[in-house]
Known about the structure:
Layout: E1 25-26, E2 29-31, H1 34-44, E3 50-51, E4 61-62, E5 65-70, E6 76-81, E7 87-91, E8 97-101, H2 104-119, E9 126-129, E10 132-135
Antiparallel strand pairs: 1-2, 2-5, 3-4, 5-6, 6-7, 7-8, 9-10
Amino acid sequence: MQNNLDLPEEDVDDDVACCGFAGFPDEGSFFLGIRAMEKLYANRSMPGGVNPADQPDNPFRRNEGIPFLSDQDGWTGKFIDVRDGRIGKWFVGEITTTGEHASLAHHVDSVAEMLTKIADGSHPTCSVAEGRLAWS
Protein backbone atom coordinates (compact mmCIF):
# COMPACT_ATOMS: atom_id res chain seq x y z
CA MET A 1 0.00 0.00 0.00
CA GLN A 2 2.99 2.33 0.47
CA ASN A 3 3.50 2.52 -3.30
CA ASN A 4 -0.15 2.17 -4.28
CA LEU A 5 -1.07 3.86 -7.57
CA ASP A 6 -4.69 4.58 -6.65
CA LEU A 7 -5.71 8.21 -6.74
CA PRO A 8 -6.56 9.85 -3.43
CA GLU A 9 -10.19 9.13 -2.51
CA GLU A 10 -11.27 12.74 -3.17
CA ASP A 11 -9.93 12.56 -6.76
CA VAL A 12 -11.71 9.32 -7.74
CA ASP A 13 -14.41 9.72 -10.39
CA ASP A 14 -17.16 7.11 -9.96
CA ASP A 15 -18.30 7.66 -13.58
CA VAL A 16 -15.15 6.06 -15.03
CA ALA A 17 -14.25 2.38 -14.89
CA CYS A 18 -10.62 2.96 -13.88
CA CYS A 19 -8.74 5.81 -12.27
CA GLY A 20 -5.01 6.35 -12.17
CA PHE A 21 -2.21 8.61 -13.22
CA ALA A 22 -2.67 9.17 -16.97
CA GLY A 23 0.11 9.51 -19.51
CA PHE A 24 2.30 6.63 -18.42
CA PRO A 25 3.28 4.20 -19.83
CA ASP A 26 1.59 5.79 -22.85
CA GLU A 27 -0.93 8.53 -23.51
CA GLY A 28 -3.99 6.27 -23.56
CA SER A 29 -3.48 4.03 -20.55
CA PHE A 30 -2.06 3.89 -17.05
CA PHE A 31 -0.93 1.44 -14.42
CA LEU A 32 -3.72 0.55 -12.02
CA GLY A 33 -3.74 0.89 -8.27
CA ILE A 34 -5.11 -1.82 -5.99
CA ARG A 35 -8.69 -0.43 -5.84
CA ALA A 36 -8.79 0.00 -9.63
CA MET A 37 -7.52 -3.59 -10.13
CA GLU A 38 -10.20 -4.93 -7.81
CA LYS A 39 -12.95 -2.89 -9.45
CA LEU A 40 -11.98 -3.85 -13.00
CA TYR A 41 -11.49 -7.52 -12.13
CA ALA A 42 -14.90 -7.68 -10.40
CA ASN A 43 -16.53 -5.97 -13.36
CA ARG A 44 -15.04 -8.39 -15.88
CA SER A 45 -15.03 -11.76 -14.07
CA MET A 46 -17.38 -14.40 -15.45
CA PRO A 47 -19.22 -17.38 -13.94
CA GLY A 48 -17.47 -20.50 -15.20
CA GLY A 49 -14.17 -18.68 -15.66
CA VAL A 50 -14.29 -17.86 -19.39
CA ASN A 51 -16.46 -15.87 -21.76
CA PRO A 52 -17.84 -17.35 -23.93
CA ALA A 53 -17.98 -20.60 -21.97
CA ASP A 54 -18.05 -22.77 -25.11
CA GLN A 55 -14.68 -21.36 -26.32
CA PRO A 56 -12.18 -22.03 -23.50
CA ASP A 57 -9.19 -21.97 -25.89
CA ASN A 58 -10.18 -18.69 -27.57
CA PRO A 59 -12.06 -16.60 -25.01
CA PHE A 60 -12.83 -12.91 -24.92
CA ARG A 61 -12.11 -12.99 -21.18
CA ARG A 62 -10.59 -15.35 -18.62
CA ASN A 63 -10.95 -15.00 -14.86
CA GLU A 64 -7.26 -15.93 -14.49
CA GLY A 65 -6.23 -12.54 -15.85
CA ILE A 66 -5.47 -9.89 -13.20
CA PRO A 67 -5.51 -6.42 -14.84
CA PHE A 68 -2.63 -4.08 -14.07
CA LEU A 69 -2.86 -1.54 -16.91
CA SER A 70 -5.97 -0.09 -18.57
CA ASP A 71 -7.53 2.80 -20.37
CA GLN A 72 -9.97 4.99 -18.42
CA ASP A 73 -13.04 3.09 -19.62
CA GLY A 74 -11.70 -0.41 -18.95
CA TRP A 75 -12.14 -1.30 -22.64
CA THR A 76 -8.54 -2.28 -23.25
CA GLY A 77 -5.54 -3.14 -21.14
CA LYS A 78 -2.97 -5.65 -20.01
CA PHE A 79 -3.16 -8.39 -17.42
CA ILE A 80 -1.03 -11.00 -15.68
CA ASP A 81 -2.19 -14.55 -16.43
CA VAL A 82 -2.02 -16.21 -13.02
CA ARG A 83 -1.78 -19.64 -14.64
CA ASP A 84 1.78 -19.05 -15.89
CA GLY A 85 2.73 -15.40 -15.21
CA ARG A 86 2.66 -14.31 -18.85
CA ILE A 87 1.39 -10.88 -19.80
CA GLY A 88 -1.68 -10.68 -21.98
CA LYS A 89 -3.89 -7.97 -23.39
CA TRP A 90 -7.58 -7.51 -23.93
CA PHE A 91 -9.82 -5.27 -25.95
CA VAL A 92 -13.56 -5.52 -25.40
CA GLY A 93 -15.16 -7.54 -28.19
CA GLU A 94 -11.90 -9.12 -29.36
CA ILE A 95 -10.16 -12.36 -28.44
CA THR A 96 -7.94 -12.04 -25.35
CA THR A 97 -4.29 -12.74 -26.14
CA THR A 98 -1.51 -13.92 -23.85
CA GLY A 99 2.22 -14.14 -24.28
CA GLU A 100 2.97 -10.53 -25.23
CA HIS A 101 5.69 -10.75 -22.57
CA ALA A 102 6.91 -13.82 -20.70
CA SER A 103 6.49 -12.13 -17.32
CA LEU A 104 5.81 -8.83 -15.59
CA ALA A 105 9.59 -8.36 -15.32
CA HIS A 106 9.87 -8.60 -19.12
CA HIS A 107 7.05 -6.08 -19.50
CA VAL A 108 8.76 -3.67 -17.08
CA ASP A 109 12.01 -4.10 -19.06
CA SER A 110 10.16 -3.09 -22.23
CA VAL A 111 8.80 0.02 -20.48
CA ALA A 112 12.34 0.86 -19.31
CA GLU A 113 13.59 0.52 -22.90
CA MET A 114 10.82 2.86 -24.06
CA LEU A 115 11.73 5.41 -21.38
CA THR A 116 15.38 5.23 -22.41
CA LYS A 117 14.39 6.01 -26.01
CA ILE A 118 12.26 8.93 -24.83
CA ALA A 119 15.11 10.27 -22.69
CA ASP A 120 17.65 10.11 -25.53
CA GLY A 121 15.20 11.64 -28.05
CA SER A 122 14.85 8.59 -30.28
CA HIS A 123 11.24 7.64 -29.47
CA PRO A 124 8.96 8.30 -32.47
CA THR A 125 5.91 9.65 -30.62
CA CYS A 126 7.04 10.91 -27.21
CA SER A 127 9.45 13.45 -25.80
CA VAL A 128 10.07 15.24 -22.52
CA ALA A 129 8.73 18.79 -22.20
CA GLU A 130 9.10 20.72 -18.95
CA GLY A 131 9.81 17.49 -17.07
CA ARG A 132 6.70 15.70 -18.35
CA LEU A 133 6.06 13.12 -21.05
CA ALA A 134 4.64 14.79 -24.17
CA TRP A 135 2.91 12.41 -26.61
CA SER A 136 2.34 13.40 -30.22
